[in-house]
Write a structure and sequence with these properties.
One of its GO terms (molecular function) is protein-L-histidine N-pros-methyltransferase activity. It holds the Pfam family DREV. This is Methyltransferase-like protein 9. It comes from Petrolisthes cinctipes. By secondary structure, this protein is α+β, with helices and mostly antiparallel strands. The chain is built from 3 helices and 8 strands; from the N terminus they run βαβαββαββββ. It has helices at 33-43, 82-96, 140-144, and strands at 18-24, 44-56, 99-112, 119-131, 149-154, 160-164, 167-170, 182-187. It has a 6-stranded mixed sheet. The chain starts with 17 loop residues before the first strand and ends with a strand.
């Protein structure tokens, strides 16, 4: 087990398949995030697991290689709220690349600050994804098929503020706005 370079790892030992790959806080800083996810998909074992951590709301910024600091590939993440972007990632982006959502969690993420502020407090969303097919060009209906799905909240019970596309959102106060929300999607297998 080890940490591998984001750009050369897929070329090393091309016949090796991984049971688990982690991609932590990289997709919003990567010039070609969809290509990276396609590479990851090709190197995962059948039914392999991908762990993705991503700061939301999504705001890509590529530090090197571009004049405008924008990625050359669009992740196709839409929505202005964390909940809306989680839905787009879970229902459209990840399935279009051959992954199905197993669980996700919202966690606090502290990052280095600047001259104005010592550090920034952001929301990091961790997705646990399962490889569903060797062909990463499938559409959402192939990923989910006709299987009945139900989403179940895991953790302490809190009052649901509203539900957006099947994801519960909560009335937040300053005290609990960064507590994590963990969901599990159950499918009939």
């Amino acid at each position: 087990m080890g940490v591998l370079d984001a750009w050369s790892w897929a070329r090393e030992a091309e016949d090796v398949e991984y049971d688990v790959i982690t991609c932590l806080n990289l997709l919003d800083r990567c010039d070609t995030p969809r290509s990276l996810l396609t590479q990851i998909h090709s190197r995962l074992a059948p039914s392999g697991t991908l762990v993705v951590a991503l700061v939301l709301p999504f705001s890509p910024y590529v530090e090197t290689g571009t004049m405008d600091n924008l990625p050359s590939e669009d992740m196709r993440v839409r929505g202005s709220t964390l909940e809306a972007q989680v839905n787009v990632l879970a229902d459209e982006v990840f399935p279009s690349l051959g992954f199905s959502l197993v669980r996700w969690s919202r966690l606090p993420y502290l990052c280095e600050g600047d001259l104005d502020q010592a550090f920034y407090w952001l929301s990091d969303v961790v997705f646990i994804l399962r490889k569903v097919k060797d062909d990463a060009s499938q559409d959402e209906t192939e990923v989910y098929g006709d299987k009945k799905q139900e989403k179940e909240f895991i953790g302490e019970e809190r009052e649901v503020g509203r539900e957006v596309d099947g994801v519960a959102t909560y009335e937040e106060s300053d005290d609990d706005c960064y507590e994590d929300a963990l969901y599990e999607i159950k499918t009939d297998l």
